[in-house]
Amino acid sequence: MLKGFWKPGGKLSGAIRPRWVAHPGVCNEAAAVLSMETPWKVPGRGLDALIFRCRGNRVAAVIQAEPPPAQRLEEEGLLVELRSGDEGAFLQLVDRYNASMIRIARAYVGTRAAAEDVAQDAWLAVLNGIERFEGRSSLKTWLFRIVVNSARARGAREGRLVPFSALETRDDEGLAADPDRFHDASSRYAGNWASPPQPWAEQALIANETIRLVQAEIGRLPARQRAVITMRDVEGLEAREVCDLLGVSETNQRVLLHRARSQVRAALEQQLTSGGVP
Amino acid sequence: MTASSTLDLSCQELVAAVTDYLEGSLPLLERTRFETHLCYCPPCRVYLAQMEETVAVAGRLTVEALPAEGRDRLVAAFRGWNRALPGRKP
Amino acid sequence: MIAYKFLSPGAVGPFSRFQWPLPVQGVPGPWVEARGSRWEGIHACLPDDLPYWLDAELWRTELAGTIEEVPLQLVAQRGRLVGRVDRWDADMATRFAEDCAMRLRDRAVTHLQAGGLAEAAVALSRAVDSAALVQVTSSLAAGVPGIGSILVAFVGDAAGAALAGSAAGASYVAARALDRTGGGPAAFAAERTVQARWLERKLAL
Description:
The complex is a heterotrimer of chains A (278), B (90) and C (205).
Chain A: E1 35-36, E2 48-54, E3 57-63, H1 69-83, H2 87-106, H3 112-129, H4 139-157, H5 202-206, H6 208-220, H7 223-234, H8 239-246, H9 250-272
Antiparallel strand pairs in A: 1-2, 2-3
Chain B: H1 11-23, H2 28-40, H3 42-58, H4 68-84
Helix pairs in contact in B: 1-3
Chain C: E1 2-7, E2 32-34, E3 42-44, E4 57-70, E5 73-84, H1 90-114, H2 118-126, H3 130-140, H4 146-163, H5 167-203
Antiparallel strand pairs in C: 1-4, 2-5, 3-5, 4-5
């Protein structure tokens, strides 16, 4: 996915290597591409198009490119340095990931302070486990897995295991949208919007208050919903990774994500369409 | 509330399916019903856009700096770990 | 093969928001392929299914590679824009919408006559345009019993959509109206087919 180094409204980075180029009679090897013309930016979605000139023919490919190898290489470099005792490399990783780790931990423990403690535990576990990291998963996934384990361990130690099991009944709360917003069975438009959502102002969406509102609302979600939306939408992990980290099925993950996002959207709607941020 | 036709979808159904749609996990027929509904239903286009905007805002949750004291603890932990490794220079 | 594709203004895919590369001076645009979680393949449709996909711009699209026929559309490995169907513009969209509203009106008139509601039938048949339809239906709907009332209300909705130039809105209302007033999904599909025929004829596809 282009997520991570390309943001909606931004430009493609020069380090992109397309996975796939299309034209009848042209091979799919990136090596066959002779030049890359101006990439298009596609607002809002992780989808980009590049025009290539390939053996004199213009072709366009809609692609989803890998994240630039540069970032992965750079992290591999940091890990090598870390293993050889380079404190600066360690601190770079801390600066890069600690906040995310705290956010993940926060889904498991009750307070910010406890989440910070979990992150501290996790970093120790990282140091102790760094020799064993083989790079099969991304570094981020590996770190998050350690955080999740640390959170569970801390919860168990303190006799307060956060109920991440099926006993978490609050997951069932929250319908996607209030049924009163839709026409009832007696209407000729049964099932359709009766009080439709109003578009939000762009400026409102980038306001700091709006970001804080989302943060607060995520904090109020039931634990599993909070964990999923944090990992997927805040931290940008893929669905598969989150399923592995949380030990839930793909379907479950989607349901949790759906409920979480619906709740946050509803909170945003309340704020943005009732005299909150103009 | 279910829709009138097997090729149609109600707004309520669309709202319930919106995450599946964004995840790409709707089977083709469901996706077709979803998208043809969007063609004639501006409020649902708004709703879908709002779900995407919600995700976008979540993605912008800011990184908070580690307070100095936390950092110091980690540095100390690192040095302890480093020293304890076999073959390290003291 | 040649198929059709509705795009949002500026040749932008309505769901992918992909900016399609345009033909240049009669030369088709470059081939596009798509791979990725939600956009496997290039989507287009045959004239039969145009009413389901209405949008601002209509493009003739050439498809190549494996082409799959699925309900309401074609999914191909590759596609390219060949040329714009210029006849499809805001005016044509409005006329299409008005046609949907008027034909629905005609159905409602028939229904009212069959139900012995001659006065209502006459009043409805006298409306000459969408604006008049909106007027007459709002006063009629309450006084007409049962299904007739729902049908008349739908006529008003379709006319309102036509007034707003909403082809997608008016055509949907017409199809839904026939479904909901006893025809079921078969009537929905049949109305869409009538709409498709109108488009084919008027756009000379």
